[in-house]
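Ticket #4471: structure output looks truncated?

Reporter: J.K.
Steps to reproduce: submitted the chain below (120 residues) through the standard prediction queue, then opened the result file.
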Amino acid sequence: MNRITARIKRYTRRKRSVRKNIFGVPTKPRLSLTRTGKNMYAQLIDDTSGRTLCSASTIEKDGKMEAGSNCDAAKSIGVRLAEKAKSVGIESVVFDRNGYKFHGRVKALAEGAREGGLKF
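Returned output as attached by the reporter:
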């Protein structure tokens, strides 16, 4: 097993261990995030019906950052997602870090969502 497959196995193990305890319902959906090298995506998911209630990302037209770090972009995504959630009528969520460690961009997104008014 090479380094890349070992890293993927560790990531999927972390993801499964986090995800087995988290389930989003319509009143308290799951805030799931995905990060890539360049972009970050966050969405609120109702797991009972399998629907995405609202989403925010760095590739949205109004979400592009002109200058600044990825942490700044992640924080703005969290604030924007909280605003969209408020317009849909959601005020509390379950945070699904999706196997990523809670630091850096993931932590910045969570802080932004909390500043925007989401409770978790």
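Triage note (M.O.): checked the attachment and the full token line is present. The helical segments are 3-19, 70-88, 105-116.
Status: closed, working as intended.
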